[in-house]
Amino acid sequence: MNELKKKIKRLYTSNANGPRSFRWGLFIFDMTLIAYFLATATIELSNTIIAIDITLGVILLAEFSARHWVLNERKTLGQKLYAALDLIVILSLFAPLLFKNIGFLRILRTLRFLHSYHTIKELRRLSKWFRKNERVVTAATNLIVFVFIVTSIVWVLEARINPNINSYIDALYFTVTTLTTTGYGDIILQDDLGRVLTILIMVFGVALFLRLVQQIFRPHKIEHKCKHCGLKQHDPDASHCKHCGNIVNIETDGEV
Q1: What is the percent of the chain with per-residue pLDDT over 70, rounded to a whole number?
Q2: Spatial separation of the C-alpha atoms in residues 225 and 249, rounded to whole Å
Q3: pLDDT tens column, 19-37
Q4: Backbone angles phi, psi at 135, to 5 degrees
Q5: Whole-number Cα distances in Å, 54 to 48, 96, 154
Q6: What is the rounded CA–CA span in Å between residue 256 and residue 252?
Q7: Is the pLDDT of residue 55 over 60?
Q8: Confidence category of residue 116, pLDDT binned at 50, 70, 90
Q9: C-alpha span between 120 and 216 (Å, rounded)
Q10: Residue 91's closest CA among 66, 140, 57, 138?
Q11: CATH architecture, domain 143-218
Q12: Which of the pair, 196 or 140, is modelled with greater confidence?
């Protein structure tokens, strides 16, 4: 048993070619899984869809169990939250065994988007490019996760009752035009729940959307804490801190 645990732990922690390929495979599987969740968000349940859901649930449960069995170090609150979200997604895949109408549970599957943050942590170890551009990648991920979670909620809640929303693209179009305050008005949410959702998107979503876009296009900075004043971000070619003027020794590869 201990030998099996060591082999599984090596897959999640080693930088050898085999384990690295395994983790890249998990990343590809995760992106495919999210695409499947989006594609099947509102289609009628059939025996085939139920069988696929249960099969995916078994795979995710096995991976979740293996990962938490071998990575049994003391977990932070954030790690515990990710684990809870993973379990919610897994349980939603087994829901057809207990409930016939699971439309409301399909919204929960969009929580798999939040697994992207765990994926970024893994990619940071696997890719030098990700380490170099971590701030932009994280901001872009925040933006994509936010937009697609909001879009998925709009799609699941409105697809069957709003004649203007006939595809996921329609829901994405409505979400983006609302977040960017363009508001063409050709697609609107007319029911009470839809109006409340629109208000929430406008009140909370617009400011967050603009903030995330700003982070992506803001000039690139290097993460390096100044020992004197604590400033954490500096220009890539900085030799002195802009706040206090003291020398900062930023490690570089000779590129700016």
Answers
A1: 71
A2: 10
A3: 878 878 887 888 788 778 7
A4: -65, -45
A5: 10, 8, 25
A6: 8
A7: yes
A8: low
A9: 16
A10: 57
A11: Orthogonal Bundle (1.10)
A12: 196
157 CB burial (10 A radius; 0-12, 13-18, 19+): buried
| Tokens standing for residue 27 | 């990343």
For the chain, the three-class secondary structure string (H helix, E strand, C coil) is CHHHHHHHHHHHHCCCHHHHHHHHHHHHHHHHHHHHHHHCCCCCCCHHHHHHHHHHHHHHHHHHHHHHHHCCCCCCHHHHHHHHHHHHHHHHHHHHHCCCCCHHHHHHHHHHHHHHHHHHHHHHHHCHHHHHCHHHHHHHHHHHHHHHHHHHHHHHHHCCCCCCCCCHHHHHHHHHHHHCCCCCCCCCCCCHHHHHHHHHHHHHHHHHHHHHHHHHHCCCCEECCCCCCCCCEECCCCCECCCCCCECCCCCCCCC
Domain boundaries, the chain: 1-132, 143-218, 221-256
60-65: list long-range contacts, CB under 8 Å, 24+ apart: 60/33, 60/86, 60/89, 60/90, 60/93, 61/90, 63/26, 64/90
Residues 6+ apart with CB under 8 A from 158: 165, 171, 189, 191, 194
Structure tokens given for 14: 């080693």
Taking the mean position of all CA atoms in its chain, how far away is CA 39? 17
Region of poorest pLDDT, from 88-97, 197-206, 222-231: 222-231
Give the C-alpha separation, 116 to 31, whole Å. Answer: 9
